[in-house]
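Entry 14. Ran structure prediction on the chain below.
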Amino acid sequence: MWSVVSASELPVGERFDWFSDTLSREVVPAALSTERPAEFQAEAAVLELGELRVARLEFSPLSSRRTPALIRRGDPGQYQLGLMRGGRAFLAQQRNECRAGAGDILLWDTSRPSDVRTAADDGLVRLAMLQLPQSALPLKPDRLQRLLAHRIPGDQGVAAVLAAFVNALEGHGGQCAPAELQRLGTVAVDLVAACLAQHLDAEAHLPAEVRTRALLQRIYAFIDHNVADPDLTPSAVAARHHISVRTLHQLFRQQEETVQARIRRRRLERCRSDLTRPELMHHPVNAIAARWGFSGPAVFSRSFRDRYGLTPTQFRALSVNEDRAVCTSS
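Output, structure tokens:
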């Protein structure tokens, strides 16, 4: 479950000092400054994923410096990876420096001095941050140094899969049981490692199990992105990822469902969602099925009933009746 704290609960004059103290205590000791402390706003939410922690941060523009003295005061020995949601950031570390905007990914090392400056046109910087032990990444530190304070576009390659995964964590991670969160932490570390290795051209240096788990996440993301395509088949998935169909099926052998079952389930979930949308009530059921890649109404109706216990038409009627009951009672 996400743990949320907000500066809005404090008097205006105390908000910046509170955020500065909280960040130094819960993340790393750092010297923060802001041009307008009397207007400062901030909110933070944290989700624990085993050895990895995800933080969702919103704050007014500020500057942060981490000096050798502050490192001696406290160092968790982490790599921290930030996904910019809104605003802009300048990061300098280890003789590298870069500027980043919304959608970009940044990496920094808590054991090295750093300088960060942020800005935002709408008043708030928005950032998702992954904190993971330095020992968790199966890449040599001298390799990773090359990516410190280096802008990584979040819409390309494994970085895009990582960004989508973080988005899903923000939306649904708080609903997961502790054991599920532990597994999600493993997946997150694998994706971070695969993302960084791709930008270092060092994917061959990752352990085989990390490459396998990261490949599965890339396949999952590809299926979700292309689920409406009626030509999305195991053969198409395998070809897109430059593996044989046999290898694809072997990858899924240890999973809870086959690749074809996953495609069908994701299509059914999209159809089920559309059948509950009031603005689509006049769209024929068959049109919704075709929209999400089903080859024909008979296949769709049978698959939907097998999964949800009702035909698509019965499910839609039940959803309409429930909406009317809610409206009547309110």
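The chain has twelve helices and twelve strands. Will compare against last week's run tomorrow.
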